[in-house]
Amino acid sequence: MSDDDPDLPAGVARRDFGDGPALATRGESVYGEPTGDGWRRWDPHRSKLGATIEKGLDTGLSADASVLYLGAANGTTVSHVADVAGPTYAVEFAPRSARDLLGVCDTRSNLFPLLKDARKPETYAHVVEADLDVLVQDVATRGQARVAVENARFLADDGRLVLAVKARSEDVTAAPEAVFDEALADLREAYDVLARTPLEPYHDDHLAVVATPR
Amino acid sequence: MTEQTPAGDAGWFAGVERDDTDAAAAAIREGRADAPADWPERALDAGFAADADDYYDALHEATVAATRRAVREAESADDRQLVHAIRAMDDLASTTNELAERVAEWGGTLDDEPGTGVAYARDLAARDPETAAEERVVSLAARVVALADERDAEREFLERTVSTVAPNLASMAGPVLAARLIELAGGLESLAKMPSGTVQVLGAEDALFAHLRGNAPSPKHGVIYTHEYVRGTHPDERGSAARALAGKLTIGARIDHYAGDYRPEVEAELDERIETIRARRDDGGAK
Ligand SMILES: C[S@@+](CC[C@H](N)C(=O)[O-])C[C@H]1O[C@@H](n2cnc3c(N)ncnc32)[C@H](O)[C@@H]1O
């Protein structure tokens, strides 16, 4: 590959789809995204993880990394993760979304869909392996930090948590700053925070956090 | 290791044969463990899989099968919601019409330019009543409007739900007829199991029983009559059109129930078939 960018995980590149360089991965197209030469665009406006990478945070995502993805929805982001990484476990609890996610799994043999509740890791700990490299979480519900703490058991000691905290999921009236501070405080129960950044201009009122188990 | 039940600290593959996807899917759905472990390695040690690739292939098959089943179960519960919604919609429609008539009748005695139906009720509900009687009419009109709005909301819910529960059926029959067929059959599963001849006359039970008693011709169509492909076809060809439509709707219901993905080719075949049936009439020139 001639597209190696030292700041991007192996398997993620910047490609031009007609309007300047954009993040891309190699894989079967999923949601009508622009494609070319086997690459498909990873739109940071539609993906908080894409935005986190775009903002320059080191997510720990790499070729062959093992990944647990919480809140996979219809598979938009996790499809790119599976293009890049090794075994990728995708947890989603809404059947409607999981049905679409199944379509994404058809062409990705390293992607394992699980219709489970991320607040109950004991219901999938018999499937998801230990010592994972990356835990991506985008559940956008109350108690987001708690979910991350509960799922810390899956991470290797030097593994990474990549969390998108949505301000309005916690409290529609509270100021985003207050919500973020509280989430970070809760996280510290199980993690050391390595980096964080607001996801503007891609996603309003979202904070991306990268952390490692303590 | 292999004889462990999926409890405590056993992996999903414990006690499961490598090629038994049913058992594996059940273990994925029902098993639990407090802590994860190096399951790939344990599976190799237990002789479940030949190597890591083989393990992950088995895991992929099992998780996809488990999720597909769980999704289908969850969505088949949705078809029952649909049945309630369409019945509520029917009740709301008849109550709304009945009360709208009452409002028009009553309003006509107080109003110089009375109107009819829900539109008139909407009109009346927005007025300022001056007498005690007007107050009652305006208030009643407001109830009619609220019922009509609820009926519309019910229909919207139904349209949204039916196209996820039964995408093929909904796209060929239209959301309301699709929901009606599911209701008459008593659920998507029963509809999927019906022969297409039964689907063809669903909703024509009275006519069918009359026929069976020997005092009427056999009915050619039930509620599917409301479909443009039947109603809009020349009477001489309506029987064929109804048969063709019922056939494809039955196939659609089966795909919806057993697979769940949308397949445009079934609908394309239906369109073609109807075109052929209608062309017979046009070419023949008779009548
Ligand atoms: C913002 S969406 C995720 C979008 C997705 N990450 C992407 O970028 O493609 C949040 C998802 O989390 C799911 N979710 C919320 N709470 C959950 C829980 N407790 N367990 C599993 N999934 C959950 C929702 O159903 C929804 O699909």
TrEMBL record, chain A:
Its EC number is 2.1.1.-. Residues 1-43 are annotated as: Disordered. It is an enzyme of class 2 (transferase). The keyword Iron does not apply. Keywords: Methyltransferase, RNA-binding, rRNA processing, Transferase, tRNA processing. S-adenosyl-L-methionine binds at T76, T77, E92, F93, D117, A118, D138, V139, A140, T141. Pfam families: Fibrillarin. GO terms for molecular function: histone H2AQ104 methyltransferase activity; RNA binding; rRNA methyltransferase activity. One of its GO terms (biological process) is box C/D sno(s)RNA 3'-end processing. Interacts with nop5. Component of box C/D small ribonucleoprotein (sRNP) particles that contain rpl7ae, FlpA and nop5, plus a guide RNA. Belongs to the methyltransferase superfamily. Fibrillarin family. Involved in pre-rRNA and tRNA processing. Utilizes the methyl donor S-adenosyl-L-methionine to catalyze the site-specific 2'-hydroxyl methylation of ribose moieties in rRNA and tRNA. Site specificity is provided by a guide RNA that base pairs with the substrate. Methylation occurs at a characteristic distance from the sequence involved in base pairing with the guide RNA. This is Fibrillarin-like rRNA/tRNA 2'-O-methyltransferase.
From TrEMBL, chain B:
One of its GO terms (molecular function) is snoRNA binding. GO terms for cellular component: box C/D methylation guide snoRNP complex. It comes from Halarchaeum nitratireducens. It comes from the Archaea. Residues 165-279 form the Nop domain. It holds the Pfam family Nop. PANTHER family: NUCLEOLAR PROTEIN 5 NUCLEOLAR PROTEIN NOP5 NOP58 (PTHR10894), NUCLEOLAR PROTEIN 56 (PTHR10894:SF0). This is Nucleolar. Gene3D superfamilies: 1.10.287.4070, Nop domain. PROSITE patterns: NOP (PS51358). The lineage of its organism: Archaea, Methanobacteriati, Methanobacteriota, Stenosarchaea group, Halobacteria.
